[in-house]
Amino acid sequence: DFGRSSELAFVVEPSDDIAVQEQPLILYCQVEGIQPITITWRKNGVMILDSENAFMLANGSLYVSRFQRVRGDGSSDEGEYDCMAQNHYGLVVSRKAKIQAATMSDFHIHPQNAVVEEGGVARFQCQIHGLPEPVILWHKNSMPVNTDNERYTLLPKGVLQITGLRAEDSGIFHCVATNIANVKFSREARLTVSGSHSTVYKDPMILVGPENLTLTVHQTAVLECIATGNPRPIVSWSRLDGRPIGVEGIQVLGTGNLMISDLTVQHSGIYVCAANKPGTRVRRTAQGSLVVQAPAEFVQHPQSISRPVGTTAIFTCVAQGEPPPQITWLRNGQILETSDHIKLKNNNSTLSIYGINQADEAIYQCLAENSAGSTQASARLTVLWADGLPSPPQGVRAETVSATTIQVSWEKPLQNTKEIIGYVLHIRKAADPVEMEYQEAVSKSTFQQLVTDLEPSTSYSFYIKAYTSRGASKASEVTVVSTLGEVPAMPSLFIKVINSTTVQATWEPSIKLGQHKGFKLYYRKVHLSQYTGPVLLASNVTAYNITHLDASVVYEVKLLAYNQHGDGNSTVRFVSLRETVERTVLNPPCDCMKDEQNNKTSTTGIIIGIHIGITCIIFCILFLMFGYRGRLLMCKNMQEQLSTPQIPRSQRSATGLVLNGATRRDRDDRDLNGKQLDMNELERLFPASPSQEQQEKGITSAHSLSAPHDETQISTLPLDEFSTIEEQPDPLPKNPRGSSPAAVAPNYGLANEG
User: Fold this and answer.
1) Which sequence ranges are marked TM in the entry (predicted)?
2) What pLDDT, on a 0 to 100 scale, did the predictor assign at position 301?
3) How far apart are alpha carbons 472 and 465 in whole angstroms?
4) Strand partners for 471
């Protein structure tokens, strides 16, 4: 065995074949692995015993001396054969090889006579079934058709196309079908070429379009399309899904037949043949589907593994093909049965074995199969077992403590207890799969464990393993026990006063209530001991109105949820209706329509006030603008009428004399020949007869020492009383009520009356 793989595996497997009647047949099988290896054969799942007709060769191959499709006893050598190999570590089974007898039927389509005008297209067809697929050749006048002539096209399915017919193409045609089983001849058909080439216009027409085909990868597909018309139409091909056909392996046979060599799955699709009239958009189309199948093949093979006792072994087997293959698992050549500790997931791609023991040690095979073929792969599971490991823990017991707690106890193993370093308690809901199991570790001196956070009214399974530094013991006996039932939790309760005699009790649904049948509602006056109720309410009810209450007393309301295990704790609320009654008396209901009308009236008043304010601002701005313009006009007129005031040099202010904001120097620089004031406009802006009140009050000029310039307001006094005033830094005193404007000027500067 030196240099040979220790894994039992096939080097050569039997393959599909077509056998010839009365001829010998050999099916090959070669295996490698640790000897001794025993090889046996099966046909259709039944063991083949050595006989004169079929026996195994020394190299493990099966030899059938005279293959017969049907024997005298009614049996047949046709069927599915597989090879089995076994050694000390397990057994493997090869892929299934399908063996069929070579046959050939009679022709079921024969060529037909045809009369075609010169320049046209002739098509002959013959069809026959056989295994293997017969090869069909054509003869004209008892001689093979010259395939070098480009006008003659022979298609694999027994079709002969002749384009651009000439008079010499006339003759008698028949086809010859050949395979390893037989040779057969079809009936004859006569082709007659009549007349001369016609120049009459004819719309393009497709005589024969593509057929629907189902083939296997690496085969060749021929999609036929033959069209006629005058002028001769142009034939083109496309895919219905818009994808490009490509160029690799693509060939056009004759005038429009599409041949695709070395098929792949990507070639699957619907192909459209179009016959187009040259130079126009006139066209005719025909379509056919091509389905390319691919035998199953592995993307990921299962790998042999070694695992200690009590652990989990996982094998992964991923296969692809078209159509998608089905995956089957074998254990030592037998169909694998799933159980609590053997699970298949992901469409059988993943095999999981939980809590393995020595009985699980075997060769596991993954078989992938579809309509295009099958394949297999194998892997071995080795279970590691150390001598001297503890025996299983004894006397496992489980006792229910509460609705969420169970206490598990056990006794130490009977053998090999010195090396124990601890125990592991395996916990699982009885209804859950094995992979949902979880564990809790326990010290070696502890023989009981309180398992908490369990679900009420639920069955759980428990078992124990003892662990050493070299491995774990076998599992103890499994014990199953259920937790107690649990009453529902307290519901949340809210009380809302509806009116002076009615309150509404509401509560919220909650998962904390658990499985409950319904609610019970009680209420009473607080000074009484007797409750009214219970009022039984369904589990989907969340509100209840309590009516006909006395508004002068306080009430106690109590709510609880119940189920088959009893009543849960209750929620209590107190409510008084007295405040509601008093509030109703003191605060009568509002007239909502009146309040709404008041609100609308208030809003309207605010809007009107805003408009009035904006209007006032506009008028003020206009008044200031026209007033400023009037002052400028008056100042220009006064420059010509007023004489220069005689003021001692010492009394002159550093700022000079101010007239309407301008200094004397500025006034001297102005043009003295300016335009005279329009007296009509001046009278309109400054009426000549001011009111008595204005004459009594006079004009007060406001001066600000901090302002960058001074402003002088023009009064409505007659022009002969107009005067200029030299500004002083001292603040202006208030003008005494009733004094005349003429008396004000001398107190604050020299005045020169005009």
Assistant:
1) 606-628
2) 94
3) 6
4) 468
Reference 699, options 725, 664, 666, 730; nearest CA is 725
Lowest mean pLDDT among 196-210, 601-615, 709-723: 709-723
Evaluate if residue 168 carries a pLDDT over 70: yes
Per the CB < 8 A criterion, the answer to whether 257 and 224 are in contact is: yes
69 domain-assigned:
yes
Query: Is residue 687 a part of any domain in this protein?
Result: no
Q: Which two tokens stand for residue 15?
A: 């393959």
644: in domain: no
- C-alpha to C-alpha distance for 209 and 206, rounded to whole angstroms: 7
Pairwise pLDDT comparison (251 vs 485), residue with the higher score: 251
State the residue for tokens 């093949």: 297
Query: Is residue 518 pLDDT above 80, yes or no?
Result: yes
Q: Mean per-residue pLDDT for 222-233?
A: 90
Which of 241, 258, 286 finishes a domain? 286
Q: Comparing C-alpha atoms, which of 359, 351, 378, 358 is closest to residue 308?
A: 358
Report the alpha-carbon distance of residue 39 to residue 58 in Å, rounded: 10
Domain count, the chain: 5
Least confident span in 3-12, 23-32, 570-579, 729-738: 729-738
Residue 489 in domain? no
Cα–Cα dist 342/3, whole Å? 34
Identify whether the C-beta of residue 229 lies closer than 8 Å to the C-beta of residue 213.
no
Q: Which of 499, 514, 508 is nearest to 566 (CA)?
A: 514
Is 164 in the same domain as 198? yes
- Give yes or no for a contact between 488 and 511, defined as CB atoms under 8 angstroms apart: no
d(CA 749, CA 425): 117
Q: Is the dihedral of CA 495, 499, 500, 504 positive or negative?
A: negative
Separation CA 502–CA 297 (nearest Å) = 77
- Mean pLDDT, the chain, whole residue set: 80
Residue where one domain finishes, among candidates 263, 286, 309: 286
Closest CA to 462 of 442, 474, 436, 480: 480
Give yes or no: residues 178 and 258 share one domain: yes
Do residues 116 and 36 both lie within one domain?
Answer: no
Is there a contact between 330 and 367 (Cβ–Cβ < 8 Å)?
yes
- Evaluate if pTM is beyond 0.70: no
Question: Is the domain of 234 the same as that of 315?
Answer: no
- Spatial distance between the Cα atoms of 262 and 220, rounded to a whole number of angstroms: 6
- Both 88 and 113 in a single domain? no
Region 556-565: mean pLDDT is 88
For residue 36, cis peptide bond before it (omega within 30 degrees of 0): yes
Is the same domain home to 119 and 230? yes
Angle at 303 (CA atoms; ends 298, 306), nearest 5 degrees = 165
Domain that holds residue 75: 9-101
List 366's β-bridge partners, or say none. Answer: 329, 377
Residues 14 and 120 in one domain: no
Between CA 732 and CA 747 the distance in angstroms is 10
Verify that 91 and 226 share a domain, yes or no.
no
pLDDT of residue 675: 39
d(C-alpha 70, C-alpha 77), whole Å: 7
